[in-house]
Structure formats: C-alpha cells, structure tokens
Design a protein that fits this description.
heterodimer; A: 254 residues; alpha/beta; BirA Bifunctional Protein, domain 2; 8-stranded mixed β-sheet; 3-stranded mixed β-sheet; 11 strands; B: 100 residues; alpha+beta; Enolase-like, domain 1; 3-stranded antiparallel β-sheet; two-stranded antiparallel ribbon; 5 strands; globular
Chain lengths: 254, 100
C-alpha cells in the first residue's frame, strides 16, 4: 500500500496562511519537489474563502464579515464561497501526482471526494453521496464542497467537512443568487446545507471527524497515512505566498 | 458607454456571470467573467477577458472564447455557455444600435 504524508493542524491558523500552505504544496510539486500529502486543518479566526473567479462583493456579506471579525480570502482554486467555522468544520487538502486515474478532472473530483463519503459513513451517516460537480450531501443536503487546482503534473484538492458549523452564521455571511438557490430547489442558503451533527442528531466532535477523515481517505484512495510535518522549503514558500493572500489586490481582484 | 450584466445557471452546473462594458459603437472596453465554476488553467478566463477587449462582433467574441477553450478544460460551465452569455449581452447593445 502506498504511504502518504499526513499533516494534522488542529490548532488552527488564519485563512491567508492556510491558503498559502496549500498553494505552496502544489507549487513545489509542480517544480518537481512534491510530496503526496493529506493535510487536515482548521481556520482560526473563522473565515470565508471565495473561489478564484468570484466577485467578492457579490458572494460575501462584507459588512457582516467585518462586524463578526471574519477573514475573507480568495482561493487559488475555483468553486464557491465557503464559511470555515473553527468549532464546526475541518478542511482537508490532498495533493497528488496526476496518475492516469486522476487525470480526468471530473473523475478526479469523484475519486477524492469518496474520502469524504467514507468518513461520513464511518461516523454513522447512511444516506451520503457525492453529487457532481464537487459536493458531498447527506440526506440531500450539502455538508462538504471541494475545489481543485492543477499545476504541471500535480493536483491539489481542498474542501470542507462541516460537522457542527454555525449554519445561521454561514447563511448571514454568504450571499447566493436566486438562480443558484432555485437550481437546487431551495429559497435560502440555510435550506441547502447541513452538518453531520444535525444529520446524526448528536454532537459530533472534531476528534471523531479527524479520525474518520484519516480512515475515510485511506479507504477511498487505497493509501496508508503516516504523520509528518511541513518541510522548511514548504514553510518558506508559504511565508512568501501569504503576502498575496493578505493583500487587497488579490482578494478584491474581482 | 454601457455596462451590461447577465448570468446563467444550468441545472447540475455552476453559476456563470459576465459583465461587459461597451463604448458607443458596441466595442468591448472591459469584460469580467465570474462565477463558481472551475477552469484549468484558471488563466484561460483571464485570457478571454483580455482577448475580448476591442471585439465588436459576435464572430470576434466566439473566436476569443474558442481559442481559449482549445487549451483549457472547464468544469461546471461549457465554453458554449460562456460564448452564448457574452454574445447575448453584446447583442443587447448591438440590437439597440441596429448593428449585428
């Protein structure tokens, strides 16, 4: 079985740092110095990340974000706006070489998101499935969304796992156009999302989630995870990239 | 100078939005393509936005999108979705001026 580095950062870090680390992992991989890695991390303080192509003022309630002390950072990956609650959400990122199985973009989302599906099953969720393009839903409601970047012969996919996210706060911070909600058959953001605690009618803890994600990804990807740390080179590049994620020029570029 | 905006959301797909700023002869001065879709590489979208500057016909718009689409992969939207949205916005300007 293939051994893959596992990095668990449960203490939490600001959004600009988390995005810088993920981009550093992908960038170094593209330069031929990649290490296949599953990284599990927390955003602290709480944050909203938005997709590379999104217009910040149209998808985030910036007044609410400022009032609530929520960081807002643009990702280097596409997809939609996400609320990261330090007390209710674990983010994963998986970086890997583009093996034949992962080369097709749509297929690779499905393969990697099966790690989320398996983790939810391990926690006791029965009605859970991957819904293309990039969602995982339980009882028909989304609790996980993913986004993938590619450089050279590598990919990095990151995504959420909401186990106890404050969904009212999420609904206050994220702005979704009517067309998007209607296409999902709902009228409000709150109707479209759920958490694993809500699904299971019990308080699911972060420890349980981290353990389930480790086992879930091992099973889905046929890998054996071994705990490790970021290298000096990765930390150095993340430090450089973090300037971008702190800049208004980047975050307000659209 | 006119600013026209539009959006498309297909079932099972992602949201696609576009904003075109056009001069008095319906020449594109600025284009912004946004949404929660995916593009590989993402710079394909930047290339489309830059390539559209100066376009003043549907043929030009389609050509710019087609060229970028040949060296990129979109997920959640198709190059046709982008083309159609941009052309429909441009036609709102051209139709009001009597050009095609």
């Amino acid at each position: 079985m293939r051994r893959v580095r596992l990095i668990i950062e449960e203490r939490g870090a600001p959004a600009y740092w988390n995005m810088a680390v993920d981009e550093a992992l992908l960038e170094l991989s593209a330069r031929g110095r990649g290490i296949e890695t599953l990284r599990l991390y927390i955003f602290r303080p709480h944050a909203v990340t938005i997709g590379y192509f999104q217009r910040i003022r149209e998808v985030v309630n910036l007044e609410a974000a400022q009032r609530l002390g929520v960081d807002v950072v643009r990702r280097f990956t596409g997809g939609g706006a996400v609320y990261h609650d330090p007390e209710g959400e674990v983010t994963y990122s998986y970086s890997a070489p583009l093996t034949p199985g992962l080369r097709d973009v749509a297929r690779s989302y499905r393969i990697i998101c099966m790690g989320i599906v398996e983790a939810a099953r391990l926690l006791g969720v029965t009605n859970v499935e991957f819904v293309p393009v990039n969602d995982v839903v339980a009882n028909g409601r989304k609790f996980s969304g993913s986004a993938q970047g590619r450089r050279g012969e590598w990919l990095l996919q990151h995504g959420t796992f909401m186990y106890a996210t404050d969904l009212d706060r999420l609904a206050e911070l994220l702005v979704a156009p009517r067309e998007k909600l209607a296409s999902h058959g709902v009228r409000a953001v709150r109707q479209r999302v759920t958490t694993i605690s809500e699904v299971l009618h019990r308080e699911v803890t972060r420890d349980e989630v981290v353990r389930a994600l480790v086992k879930g990804f091992e099973k889905a990807l046929g890998i054996e995870l071994e705990e490790g740390e970021l290298t000096e080179e990765e930390l150095r590049l993340a430090e450089e990239l973090s300037e971008k994620y702190r800049s208004a020029e980047w975050n307000f570029r659209r | 100078m006119a600013v026209l905006r539009g959006r498309v959301k297909r079932r099972g797909g992602k949201l696609l939005e576009a904003e075109l700023e056009l001069d008095s002869s319906c020449r594109i001065v600025r284009a912004v393509i946004s949404g929660d879709f995916f593009a590989y590489p993402p710079t394909a979208v930047d290339d489309i936005e830059q390539g559209l500057r100066g376009c003043k016909s549907a043929v030009c718009i389609r050509g710019v999108v087609h060229e970028a689409a040949q060296r990129s992969t979109f997920l959640g939207v198709t190059p046709s979705d982008i083309e159609e949205l941009l052309v429909s916005l441009w036609r709102r300007c051209a139709g009001s001026k009597g050009s095609t």
